Amino acid sequence: xxxxxxxxxxxxxxxDKPHPTIKHSEDVILCITSTAICxxxxxxxxxxxxxxxxxxxxxxxxxxxxxETGPEVQDVQVDDRIVVPFNVSCGPLQILLMFSQGMMxxxxxxxxxxxxxx
Length: 118
Known about the structure:
Elements: E1 2-8, E2 11-16, E3 28-35, H1 39-46, E4 62-69, E5 81-84, H2 94-98, H3 101-109
Antiparallel strand pairs: 1-2, 3-4, 4-5
């Protein structure tokens, strides 16, 4: 598969990467049909996001067709077309039910939510 890979500030390229595999029972593998650049991708490109390591794949707004699902996936199926917007969450967390994703990110930034185990 092709992926946009970060190598350092102002240094990215489209590289061949291994095809992903299902690793967890709730995983979904997509064939990406369209993608976009988000403003936050520019922060990565400029090197202003701490923790970015050379070799990381970047990009998080895309559309695609589901190629494969893990055994516990129930809400979508193979050949479904989906859109993944910028504000995806990392799972069914209680804080998302109580507040909003924006609130969760504020908590994470303030180290109030130390670890997540899903």
